[in-house]
Fold Pyridoxal phosphate homeostasis protein.
Amino acid sequence: MPDLIHNLEAVQQRIALAAQVAGRDPRSITLLAVSKTFPAEDVRAAYTAGQRAFGENYVQESITKIEALADLRATLEWHFIGPLQSNKTRPVAENFDWVHSVDRLKIAQRLSEQRPDNLPPLNVCLQVNISGEASKSGASIPEAVEVAQAIAALPKLNLRGLMAIPEPAGSIEEQRAPHRQLRELFERLRNDGLELDTLSMGMSSDLEAAVLEGATIVRVGTAIFGTRDYSH
Ligand SMILES: *Cc1c(COP(=O)(O)O)cnc(C)c1O
């Protein structure tokens, strides 16, 4: 899969260049390869090229993929990034290393209750609905402070930070504005005493803006795997 390997390198270079412009160490930014709708073989090819963190959106699809790649499980990280209904939390709690899309306390409570005792705490991010968020899900900025404090107190979760999906925007300045809002909320929560280290923001079309505003995880699908086909 020469395209995939080339694409991965190109995305790494975009991250490195943006980090340089921002005066940041490129190693402080993790590339999460979003593999939703793509087959396990593509994940395996990216893994062979050195990629270690993968993002998935759909529970059933992801569990099938995780099982198909069980031989790599010890050295690969699975991140759930899609909308999560409360009746679908158990397989996520049992199979993933991270959940970026925790958007309310009830989901966090279920994940904590359902996280198996033999696994380390599940890393989670609170999804925040910053102005004009495309998906419309996520805690509002005013409610985020209280929800984050409550999630941080749950025993089987490790609250790592915040996640957002800003509306697509044209110029880099327009792209930076919502990412800056998320970073400001992140800093406020840290000043309030929460030990957060993760800002999950930036996708194929706006990862530079996100890195300039402090992203520590960028979630990139299309620029690595190509255009998604949802027809089957
Ligand atoms: C699909 C998806 C991505 C990747 O988007 P691309 O534009 O393909 O890079 C990132 N984050 C979330 C939450 C997604 O659902």
Remarks:
- Residues 37 and 192 are 39 Å apart (CA to CA).
- The first helix runs from residue 2 to 22.
- The chain has a mean pLDDT of 96.
